[in-house]
Amino acid sequence: MEIKRVDRDISVSPQITVADVPEVAKAGFRTIICNRPDGEGNDQPLFKEIEEAAKKAGLSCHYLPVESGKVSDEDAESFGQLLALAPKPALAFCRSGTRSVTLWALSHKGDVKLADILQKSKNAGYDMHGVVRRIANNGTTPVDAVDGSFEVVVVGAGSAGIAVASSLLARDPDLEIAVIDPADIHYYQPGWTLVGGGVFGANETVRTLSSVLPEKVHWIKAAVAAFEPERNAILLEGCRLIEYKRLVVCPGLKLDWHKIEGLVDTLGKNGVTSNYRFDLAPYTWELVQSLRGGKALFTQPPMPIKCAGAPQKAMYLSADHWVRSGVLKDIDVSFYNAGGVLFGVKDYVPALMEYVKKYEVDLQFSHNLVSIDGPAKTARFARTDGEGPSEIVEREFDMIHVCPPQCAPDFIRVSPLADAAGWVDVDQNTLRHKTYDNIWSLGDVMNAPNAKTAAAARKQAPVVAQNLLSDMGKRFNVGHYDGYGSCPLTVERGKIVLAEFGYGGKLLPSFPNWLINGQKPSRLAWLLKEKILPPVYWRAMLQGREWLAKPEKVKAEMVN
User: Fold this and answer.
1) Domain that holds residue 11
2) Domain boundary at 358, 385, 406, which?
3) Largest alpha-carbon pair distance within the chain?
4) Which one from 34, 61, 307, 403 is the annotated catalytic residue?
5) Key word Transit peptide present in the record (predicted)?
6) Residues 469-488: pLDDT tens digits?
């Protein structure tokens, strides 16, 4: 007997026997539901036998038979009603458990998010993508109507999505492109570090989405519920269906604030802040200015995260302000990093360590923030050693800058596009999906081993555009992405260590050393970050002008 837990109210299993019933009761179940018709298999006990054993064990037992592959809307309705009234937890079974978990998935009628239903089913070992439209349609069979069909559909209107749409139109202005995103606002997220350091105002990093989308794209203002790659279709919330010939997936990643216990309740107050949110970056600067003494903590969660240098950028700019204000001597600065190194590319570490020493930062590696008590001003970290065991350590703070754990969006993690870790599974050079050859992905959501930065998306967008059009027969070369990413590490106001690197930590500088030596703090690199990159973002990257971003090309026949 193999019991698989779906949620706290129900588990499912393949066919059980009379001998299994006492074990079911011993495991704490109060109800058994049989979804397998009598006589379906030669080795199958009759429901009556299971029912008699269940009564002896003090269990409620119900017979709701469903023919294999023919779960009707009425069956799902009946299952939901039965489960609602039955003593719980319940165990439902059929031949393999699939019918039972399908009935559960279809019975929720919108009271559980689609992504959660798919995730719980997946955790139990069952794939519900065959009935995803029915789940999205409140458990009933939808009319198989298409709400729109396009040559290219782009999911996500962040940096990557707008850049790739613009790069496509720059190459072929006649392409019919739809961009799907429910947002109203577009943010220049690389600027939030400077907002938190008092260099930019928050309003400098925000524009309406309609003002930055290419004029020729169709904007579908909706959230994606699920993907149906075998049908070249996307299911939107509300069970609307969009079809595509080619798909580009780039919705960014999810900031998992809830993964740190107590964090959501105290963000934006009690000295708890984060430059990873538009509305909180100004609070960072407010805290930095007002702190005259005490303990300042800066945290970094396990990888991957967007802009891996951002947590320490906040620390350097804050400490620099305290130096200039003459109060650093009264402030204990600590950096709590869940990883084991200061920065993933070792060539830049010596320059960063000079600033760690200058600001007298207490570096703590292998410390992952797990909970926070804002009113008590205490943070708790799980500290690990090389062997893996961990202990909880508690630290007091007067100010804490938190970098939240990050993962792929829920609708990506549970989709057929995802790898085992939940990221979109692509070839790291062509950014084409490894299974579905009319799908590409770029930006933070895909699984290539590069840094998740806006600079990386700037390089990826032309590669995807080139390769998609090559697949359409409109180009003869294939673009290759070398893993380029850039992290301008703001080590003090007016100086930056310009880290530029690709796959395997290979240094990929954009400028000669005599102009900007990326391994040393540079005033010219600061000028680049403060004055040049914002207009490059708004006026070039988002408009299909590929300054310093042309893809390396190889002949299509050379690509496997």
Assistant:
1) 4-110
2) 406
3) 86
4) 307
5) yes
6) 999 998 778 899 999 999 99
